[in-house]
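>> received
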Amino acid sequence: MNINVKLEKWRIAQKRHRLSDKHVQMARECGLNPDKLGKIDNHKQETWKSPLPQFIEEIYFKRFKKIEPAIVKSIKEQVADEKTKKEKQKKEKEQKRKEKARYAEKLNPVIEDMKTVFSSVPAGIDHTLKVLDNARQIIRVEKTNWQSAVIVELAAVLHDIGAVETQRKHGSMDGCFQEQEGLAIALEIMKKHDYEQSIIDRVCFIIAHHHTPEKIDGMDFQILWEADLIENMQVMEVIKDTEELKQFISDNFKTDGGKDLVFRRYAKK
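>> returned
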């Protein structure tokens, strides 16, 4: 029920039963129904009952072990407070929407920089975009807060950013070399696009350990790990056996979104 409708019911009940602001507030805190106070407020007919104000005081003390609220507000004041609260929530929601939109826009040039780095290795672009899509699907299922989602998406775009340099320097794209070489490139890209240091630090940590599951220390890292693993599984033998696949999922996936996505992708029909 709308809070204003509830308060209007209490305003009517207050007038009908001649209750003070204090007794109305006490009754509300005790969870009394304003529409049913008439069944209580009949001590003149049922003389064993206490007058309504006294009854409210008795149950209030029994429940809260104090005789009255520390602060008493009238219905009018509560309506004003509720209005202020809603206006604040509206402003916060709008600010949140703007922040989310700003970070969404910031990610697009990062994706373009990633494509430039992988210009000679188109498969790297394809893999990265698939990991990003996987991450977004898991984020939606897990209802990840938008600040963590920013980190996950950024890490998804940059997690393999050192692969080309790894191949050039080490003649291999082994995971340990990617973790090592990707940091400097990712750091340069994130600074170029003015990401906050706290975001940079977290994404760098994930990139530096994204082939080391023992280092997973949070849901953002877990989502990135699962999103990447889903793509890497296509070359694993485990996907050929349903029971082995179930065990692999149990051992490596923690999120409901990741489990659902990998099972739908690889489970035999």
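>> The two ends are 46 Å apart (CA to CA).
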